[in-house]
Design goal:
Length: 146
Amino acid sequence: MEPGMIVLLGGVLPFGSIFIEMYFIFTSFWAYKIYYVYGFMLLVFLILMVVTVCVTIVAIYFLLNSEDYRWQWTSFWAGASCSFYVYLYCIYYFFFKTKMFGFFQTAFYFSYMGIFCVCLGILCGTFGYVGTSYFVRKIYSTVKID
């Protein structure tokens, strides 16, 4: 498998685990509704981290099976690619769910969502890299060299 394809496909499942909750968070932030289910948001965050680590480990396992040992940045970007799909959802939400118009509202919305997605990408990429690093060290520690 190519690392580019691994990176693009690595974010689909983590995004799928959070996209319903993203609607409620965006509605509370941009439509001034009250969001009061913080315990459920914590559960969704934990599910996101577990799914990101598991998907990144599987993706890097396929990469290592194809004898490509440049896994470090691929593991980071595979985890961080969830933020790309979140930004695509932000674009969809802006055009179909909000009633914002004008230059300043558009610039404000997309700049804040861009900052949010960059931070989410760094967070998910870090979790993906750390989990994959632990996995790779574990599988290579059991290799016997004679």
